[in-house]
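Repro:
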Amino acid sequence: MADESHSGERPLWPYIVGALVLGLLVVGFFFIRDLIAFGRPAPEFPSLADQPDPALHGTVAYFAMVGDPKTQIDSGCVRVIAASGAESKDVLCLSDAGSDTGPQLAFLPDGRLEVTMFSWPVDQPLVVAWQKIVDVRTGAVEEVPAGQPPAAPSAQGATVTPAGEQIIARTGGNEAELALVSADGAARTLWSAEVSPEYSIRAIWAPNWEWVLAYDGRLLVATVDDPAVIRVLVAEPAGLGGWGSTEPRMATYAVTEVDLVGTG
């Protein structure tokens, strides 16, 4: 009788095997999805080098390891470029930088460019190696006396306007987004895309609050119109030393609202 009472019960092993198979399929799906995502190229945007926009005002400074895309001349210099994309020029070459790290760049209120290089002792934080002030218009270079430069890297730039509008750059998983948040908390997506998991983007306002400078391995100019327009200003900015992943505060690019180079 005992055998007959259990004769109608179904064995558990098919359910266990089915659950295992389903789990493996789910894990496999996400693994393949992420594997494909790792090979996903960076988002494509139009180039301001190919089609300058005279409506964009301001100047961006960055370190150019490779040559100007128009002249193909190798640089290794701090370069300034019109936000319009129309013209650029080198203002301070760092061929003697040695093992220094940087450069950290910041525009002063009078339009001159502050260039700071750091040294990185073993197992120690960054310390200032030297600082120079460059008059972008004239090319004059001023050595800053030791002890006057900042003790640590400075912040990247403003992300909130005086009116309270905030630019937010988000990356997570396989998605990236630029969003504009108004003072009352209302958010508007300027751009979003599926990206590689290693992709990252950050953004700051230009000081005239008319456009946004973003960095994703390239320097991008984003207008905040509806719809927003994003274009590549510089395809290959660079830097010296190993600061990139460990010192995100270092401002290796800078922006001013002043037109310091010709607009073509």
